[in-house]
């Protein structure tokens, strides 16, 4: 019966779609492929937390979500971040800043992949989106540029016109590689005098040794 298939489908791992999902909508086999690193380091003096190492499995999962529009994977990433924030008791933020993409990227991709992940948990955490923070420049893809051009490319690419005095902000992005984008986001936020800034990302290609 068709209903049986629908029911079964709901319980399947959102990555391989073969086995029943256990945690974060992933099956045991897929969960085994994750490399949970729980890294903590600083970007411009601000506390940064990264959950997973950007290994092949994570790279494929994120690419499938972003570029193949396998949008249901927002639940996987949302659940990862949500569980982590709960476990570390990281609730005390006024705002979450879902790293914004430029309009052209959003139009091309068809959805805001970072915000959709936050949609999964934001209501439960009682945090608001920092919607006044915008990406105002259509930056080029960073890795094709020289070192100097990268800085110029990112400069003034974000904008916010809101006094953040006394406000605590959690910035979320999917991957942190060079951290240049994150630095530009922090510099933009700093101009508006926030009380605190913390950063969280799903994955990074750098492993912080403990
Ligand atoms: Zn699986």
TrEMBL record:
Boundaries of every Phosphoribosyltransferase domain copy: 125-204
CDD domains for this protein: PRTases_typeI
SUPFAM superfamilies: PRTase-like
Pfam hit, one: Pribosyltran
Entries under PANTHER family matching the protein: DNA UTILIZATION PROTEIN YHGH
Family designation: Belongs to the ComF/GntX family.
Protein name: ComF family protein
Organism per entry: Anaerococcus porci
């Amino acid at each position: 019966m068709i209903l049986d298939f629908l029911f079964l489908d709901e319980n399947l791992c959102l990555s391989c779609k073969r086995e029943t999902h256990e945690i974060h909508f992933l099956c045991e086999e897929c969960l085994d492929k994750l490399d949970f690193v729980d890294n903590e380091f600083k970007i411009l003096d601000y506390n940064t937390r990264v959950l997973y190492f950007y290994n092949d499995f994570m790279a494929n999962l994120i690419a499938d979500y972003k570029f193949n529009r396998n949008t249901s994977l927002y639940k996987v990433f949302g659940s990862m971040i949500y569980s982590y924030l709960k476990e570390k008791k990281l609730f005390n933020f006024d705002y979450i800043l879902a790293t914004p993409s430029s309009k052209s990227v959003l139009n091309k991709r068809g959805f805001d992949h970072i915000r959709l992940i936050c949609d999964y948990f934001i209501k439960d955490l009682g945090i608001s989106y920092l919607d006044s923070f915008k990406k105002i420049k259509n930056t080029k893809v960073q890795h094709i540029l020289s070192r100097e051009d990268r800085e110029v490319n990112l400069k003034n690419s974000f904008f916010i016109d809101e006094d953040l005095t006394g406000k605590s902000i959690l910035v979320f992005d999917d991957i942190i590689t060079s951290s240049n984008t994150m630095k530009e986001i922090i510099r933009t936020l700093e101009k508006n005098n926030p009380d605190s800034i913390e950063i969280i990302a799903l994955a990074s290609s750098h492993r912080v040794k403990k």
